[in-house]
TrEMBL record:
SUPFAM superfamilies linked: Nucleotide-diphospho-sugar transferases
Domain Glycosyltransferase 2-like as annotated: residue spans: 44-170
Pfam families recorded: Glycos_transf_2
Name listed for the protein in its UniProt record: Glycosyltransferase involved in cell wall biosynthesis
Alphabetic keyword roster: Membrane, Transferase, Transmembrane, Transmembrane helix
Length: 377
């Protein structure tokens, strides 16, 4: 009976921490005002291509099926990544060949920077080629952006379409991703730390005033860094779930690639997040694992109570993940395994951050405004 009591205690703690971390994942309303169609007509869509031609074609088709077309569509890449398009090339679709990647730049940031310099619309919307727009998705983005009066930055995390069983193991990572931006604790998607990477929109003038991807040239998470730049000058920054807006289906070649993605992304997000949020995530992981241990231990004496407790926990997780991807109850039966696998990656990255912080003594050199302007040219 003592084990059952501990099971109930850890269940209550875990669910409470879930509420603290993920109060509400904001979803853009499905009903939109047609007057915001004018924003689309002023927008340059910049497609960053580092995947296959099929992905670019799929994204282009999803744009062509929107109610109103954007001002222009720019497909950015180098000689190797620019796809050969014939049928998909229309009067407002252009290909931008970026020069060889500059020293100190991440390839993706380099492509974004040159895409933005080629854009002529009042607004620029960056989107990764691995995603696609849902019907009416572009209008919903403009609806959400109009909520902040067409200013600041708005980022979106794609809605995950689970087409492969290995994608199910990213469920714990999805929770981690939303909890770190702190958007899930606000009512209107207001970000306190940073935003998402696959899709974001801002005014072109504001983008260049803040240095755009030039300032984030070394960052693995440029969307996160750009959001912080907008927040630093007191401009609004919001982040949203991509449900009803944009989707993707992450494709992993195997376990090695999955763990590499977790390790790389988790390490970068942890490096930028606050210790209070990281502490909450650590406590949530610990309490969840302890709950599963006591739940398993209580099966011989109280099997029905253990099963009920397990499904209460899984149901609470499902309520969160339904806004992040096409998860179902049966998909999360193996969630304890997903959680334990991700916990190893998280704790490794968290320990690395603590050690790096403890031994970090090097100061960043001061750069004047004139020097910045020269480098940006």
């Amino acid at each position: 009976m003592k084990g059952v009591n501990f099971m109930v205690i850890w269940l209550c703690i875990a669910v409470t921490l879930q509420i603290l971390l993920l109060y509400k994942i904001p979803v853009i309303p499905r009903d939109c005002n047609p007057r915001h169609l004018t924003l689309i007509r002023k927008t340059s869509v910049i497609i960053i291509n580092d995947s296959s031609k099929e992905h670019v074609v799929r994204l282009l088709k999803s744009i062509f099926h929107q109610e109103v077309q954007p001002f222009e569509i720019l497909i950015v890449g180098d000689k190797e990544t620019l796809p050969r398009l014939k049928k998909e090339m229309k009067s407002h679709v252009f290909q931008v060949e970026a020069p060889p990647v500059g020293i100190g730049w991440k390839p993706k940031n380099w492509a974004c920077w040159h895409g933005a310099k080629s854009a002529t619309g009042d607004y620029i919307l960056f989107i990764h080629s691995s995603t696609w727009f849902e019907p009416g998705g572009m209008l919903r983005i403009m609806e959400a952006y109009q909520m902040q009066f067409g200013k600041g930055i708005l980022t979106i995390s794609p809605y995950k379409r689970l087409t492969d069983w290995i994608n199910l193991f990213s469920s714990a990572f999805s929770i981690f991703l939303f909890s770190l931006t702190k958007i899930a604790r606000s009512h209107k998607g207001t970000s306190r730390y940073g935003g998402f990477e696959e899709c974001f929109i801002c005014r072109r003038d504001d983008y260049f005033k803040l240095g755009g991807h030039y300032e984030a040239r070394k960052e693995l998470l440029p969307g996160f860094a750009l959001t912080q730049s907008f927040l630093s000058v007191h401009q609004k920054a919001t982040s949203w779930s991509g449900k009803y807006v944009i989707s993707n289906n992450e494709e992993y070649a195997g376990w090695k690639q999955l763990f590499r993605h977790w390790n790389k992304s988790a390490g970068e997000y942890i490096e930028k997040a606050g210790f209070s949020t990281l502490s909450l995530i650590t406590l949530w992981l610990l309490s969840s694992i302890l709950f599963f241990i006591y739940c398993l231990a209580a099966i011989p004496s109280q099997p029905i109570l253990s099963i009920i407790g397990f499904f209460i926990y899984i149901w609470s997780i499902l309520l969160i993940l339904k806004k992040a991807g096409s998860y179902h109850l049966m998909d999360l039966i193996g969630f304890p395994i997903h959680l334990i696998m991700f916990s190893f990656v998280f704790l490794k990255s968290f320990a690395g951050k603590v050690l790096a912080f403890a031994f970090q003594t090097k100061e960043k050199p001061y750069v004047t405004a004139k020097e910045k302007e020269k480098k940006m040219d």
